[in-house]
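Sequence design from tokenized structure. All designs in this work follow the same two-part layout: the structure record, then the generated sequence. An example of the structure record is given first.
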């Protein structure tokens, strides 16, 4: 009950930060259909939650409801489903590993609590936590996130970003790939800001590659070709 309070405070602070950066928070979010999440680790065994089912301990090499654990290390596990591999981390949102007709071209996002929408994904093959923002022009991340995924952001174009404390330097660059679920988008414009951010904003430089449709708490993104 009390564990949810720090997350709520972080989201409130993040909303204020985004407003200072001029980034609106028309948000959509994640926990996706045919999803897999890592609830914890028991020794070298992964505690998997598959499609919302009861958590199950699965050792490397074993398969549970079509999800095979390839390997485990620390607080993460590499799993495979329908030929697709994902790196899961304890506490992160579920990732989509569906094998339906939309595989590779459709992302299904389900609203999370508090009206916010979060999803795990990858930038240049490295795991990140996204917050989808239809009001942000670009994918936006902090210097800390950029350094964590090994992004050479200083090779990008220097820019000035307007914040509550005045202008601050940032960088604009292209990401080689952005992955959400089993869908990849290449050559995506992004900005890196020195301000701390608990999530990477998934802005319109990614979202504009999709036809978006929202029905109640579910948003569907169909890739444009």
């Amino acid at each position: 009950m009390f564990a949810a309070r720090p997350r709520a405070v972080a989201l409130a602070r993040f909303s204020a930060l985004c407003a200072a950066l001029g980034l609106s928070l028309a948000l959509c979010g994640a926990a996706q259909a045919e999803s897999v999440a890592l609830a914890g680790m028991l020794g070298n065994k992964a505690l998997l939650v598959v499609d919302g089912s009861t958590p199950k301990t699965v050792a490397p090499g074993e398969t549970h409801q079509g999800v095979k654990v390839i390997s485990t290390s620390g607080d993460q596990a590499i799993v495979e489903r329908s030929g697709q591999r994902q790196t899961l981390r304890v506490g992160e949102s579920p990732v989509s590993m569906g094998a339906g007709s939309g595989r590779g071209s459709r992302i299904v996002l389900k609203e999370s609590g508090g009206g916010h929408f979060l999803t795990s994904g990858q930038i240049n093959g490295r795991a990140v936590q996204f917050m989808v923002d239809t009001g942000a022009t670009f994918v936006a991340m902090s210097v800390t996130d950029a350094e964590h995924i090994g992004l050479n952001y200083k090779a990008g174009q220097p820019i000035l970003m307007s914040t509550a404390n005045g202008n601050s330097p940032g960088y604009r660059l292209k990401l080689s790939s952005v992955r959400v679920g089993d869908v990849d988008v290449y050559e995506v414009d992004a900005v890196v800001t020195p301000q701390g951010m608990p999530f990477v904003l998934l802005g319109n430089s990614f979202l504009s590659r999709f036809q978006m449709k929202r029905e109640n708490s579910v948003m569907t993104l169909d890739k444009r070709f």
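The chain has a mean pLDDT of 80. We note this feature because it recurs in several other targets discussed in the main text.
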